[in-house]
Amino acid sequence: xxxxASPVAAQDAGAWRLTPESNLSAMLDCFEAAGQTxxxxxxxxxxxxxxxxxxxxxxxxxxxxxAIMEVDVAQSADGVLFLxxxxxLDRTTTGSGEAATLSWASLSELKLKDNWGWVTPYAIPQxxxxxxxxxxxxxxxxxxxxxxxxxxxxxxxxxxxxxxxxILIAYSVEQAAALHRAAPEMLLSVSVDAPGDVAALKAAGIxxxxxxxxxxxxxPRPDLYRELDGQNIEVxxxxxxxxxxSIDAVIDRLGMDDRYAELGKEGVDILATDRPREAxxxxxxxxxLPQAGQCGVSRGGQ
Length: 302
What we know:
Elements: E1 16-18, H1 24-33, E2 38-41, H2 55-64, E3 68-75, E4 81-83, H3 104-107, H4 127-134, E5 140-144, H5 150-159, E6 166-169, H6 173-182, E7 187-191, H7 195-203, E8 211-214, H8 222-230, E9 234-238, H9 247-254, H10 258-265, E10 270-273, H11 276-285, E11 297-299
Helix pairs in contact: 10-11
């Protein structure tokens, strides 16, 4: 296997860092106590010229604002873990066909395309490279694609020293239980639509201190957020999604960026968004964006 490329250096001396001081759960508790809302950049926060699931994209975002990064992990035919959302290569790379059927040697020759179809100079990153880049910089939310072997992903996270700086995404009680068995020390994003869902997760053996509740992408639920807050479970809500119906798209179309801050006031602890820069501006104006010097957040020398 070819040696990994050196991680991208921070773009300027003022780059933001989010590093848990004791553990990630305590860091999230600290943000909640301070009345702050943390941004999770969907697929790393792509913009024109900077493709999704790419290290330079995440690096550029951290140069501008504090954020955690959601990424998608897939696996090549010869067992290499890499970042890519789609099962097929066509939309986001210069390749075509099913990504999981190709060797890493073939995948590594491709270039990433941005979300507007422009070919960039960036290659598909290996998971190990992304973990090395993120260590000491930020938290990664890991979304497992069907081809990714859970045990291999967990082993890579541990090898990179990132077990305390990841949130593993589960979409069902069964998947959450399997992830908890594989990585009992790591936090899980678990789907919660009603308080009873937490009871089902606990019955499956998942402690509430390991849970971060993903509450969907459609309708804000302040009543549910209060229930979860009473159980000391942080809330993720997604404004992301396919336009024109996603909340991000509606906010953009109507010029209502202040809605991001309102969601924070309603009880959203982590805002998963396709518009991380705009959301950060709105949160900052409302005094809800994390600040350097608290909760494991720093910027440059601060």
